[in-house]
Design goal:
The longest helix is centred in the C-terminal third of the chain and has 33 residues. Helix 4 crosses helix 18 and helix 9 runs antiparallel to helix 16. The protein has one domain: Amino acid/polyamine transporter I (Up-down Bundle). The protein contains 20 helices and no strands. The protein is mainly alpha-helical.
């Protein structure tokens, strides 16, 4: 009887430790399902039905591998990724990477506020009301809140993703067909399928994600003995975020596939897919999709500027951290405020080419990501830095294949925009 009681107490202790550690992984992964990602997943379902579900399963494995490496470095070193890159590779290369990151994240922040505007317009709230309020709320949360408060709020916002799960069930899918599509590769030998496959990977694993995850873990101060719990946080987060993507693809595949022309698909953003659901799946499904878009954009609109503040402050040795006051970390909060203001104003100014700006951010992310992943592999295998927590052979093989695949696909994506290449036409 006593042994049984002790065993139960140990289980409860492990649960409490997990609840204390959990946060950075779930927040980072959920924020990855932002307005741009929702548009990409929606297009995958609307254009190709279930034929990309198998690829999403493969992407989930890659996402878990890459982010486990970041979590491990954050726990073992107690430092953010930009800090480690500066120490190992020097200020010059770090400065160039930070400049590109700021540009890309500024455009990505614009996309998040565009998502807030589109989602709230579905609920009858004009963007000139919703965007300023959202910007003020996000700013006050980070500038006036402590790290535990910010983390709890961001975790709570993540609950809104359940709307996409509900939308997926509302369309009454054939689960047998979906399981077969998820387990069986279905490759469409077309330029559109290939380019959208690359976009699907690129929208799931992003540079800002790596910087925020490691910085958040470092600020939370998770000790080495809690590493297993931090790993669980990022792995569960990877599965949860791609499960949401799975239901977005299912919902749009069953309602929009065959209803939209190629020209329409090429010009649609996340809010447009929510509107397109209404005449096909009913107003309730469209509103659910819009509510999910608002929540996703609020979450990413907080995390993307934060990741930039962490990365730049680490790279140049500035004081940083949500728990610090504005006077103690002026650069950290100044960068965050700048991105919030730019993101909100860009959406409110008539005639700003939002689609072009978002596409440009994806190109810049494509340029940064391969280098960041190579940096991570070098750092994770540095025994002086990581001690006994370096990658083993199997981990290096899996991570190496993942990185090589991402580099090749990113290169193909960038080259496809050049005239005269096989995929550009």
């Amino acid at each position: 009887m006593l042994d049984g009681l002790i065993a139960r107490l140990r289980r409860f202790r492990r649960i409490f430790i997990l609840l204390a550690v959990i946060g950075p992984g779930l927040i980072t992964m959920n924020a990855g399902n932002d307005a741009g990602a929702i548009a990409t997943y929606s297009q995958a379902g609307a254009e190709f039905g279930f034929r990309m579900l198998w690829l999403l399963v493969v992407i989930t494995l890659s996402l878990a591998v890459v982010n486990e490496m970041g979590a491990r470095m954050g726990v073992v070193t107690g430092k953010g990724l930009a800090d480690l890159i500066r120490e190992r590779f020097g200020v010059r290369s770090t400065t160039f990477a930070m400049a590109l990151l700021v540009v890309a994240n500024a455009f990505t922040t614009v996309a998040e506020f565009a998502g807030i505007a589109a989602g709230m317009e579905l609920l009858g709230v004009p963007k000139y009301v919703s965007v300023p309020i959202a910007a003020i709320v996000i700013w006050l949360l980070v500038v006036r809140g402590s790290y535990p408060v910010v983390e709890r709020v961001l975790l709570s916002i993540g609950v809104v993703y359940l709307t996409y799960v509900v939308s997926g069930f509302l369309v009454h899918p054939d689960w047998g067909e979906i399981l077969r599509a998820s387990a069986t590769p279905q490759v469409d030998a077309s330029r559109a399928y290939f380019l959208l496959s690359i976009a699907l990977i690129g929208t799931t694993i992003t540079p800002w994600m790596q910087f925020y995850l490691q910085a958040a873990i470092a600020e939370k101060g998770i000790p080495d003995e809690r590493l297993a719990y931090s790993r669980a946080d990022v792995i569960v987060g990877s599965v949860v975020t791609d499960l949401i993507a799975f239901f977005i693809i299912v919902a749009t595949a069953l309602t929009l596939a065959g209803h939209l022309t190629p020209a329409q698909l090429g010009n649609m953003q996340a809010g447009d897919y929510a509107k397109a659901l209404i005449p096909v799946a009913g107003r309730f499904s469209g509103i659910l999709f819009g509510v999910g878009l608002v929540g996703a954009s609020l979450l990413a609109g907080s995390v993307v500027p934060l990741s930039t503040s962490y990365a730049v402050s680490e790279a140049f040795g500035f004081e940083r951290g949500v728990d610090r006051g504005v006077g103690d970390a002026p650069a950290f909060f100044g960068i965050f405020t700048f991105l919030i203001v730019v993101g909100a104003l860009a959406v409110l100014i008539p005639g700003v080419p939002l689609v072009s700006m978002i596409l440009l951010s994806q190109d810049v992310n494509g340029l940064i990501l391969p280098a960041i992943l190579v940096y991570m592999l070098v750092l994770i295998n540095d025994r002086r830095l990581m001690g006994r927590y370096t990658n083993g052979r199997l981990a290096n093989l899996i991570a190496g294949v993942t990185v090589a695949g991402l580099i090749i696909l990113t290169g193909l994506l960038l080259s496809s925009s050049l005239p005269g290449t096989p995929l550009s036409g």
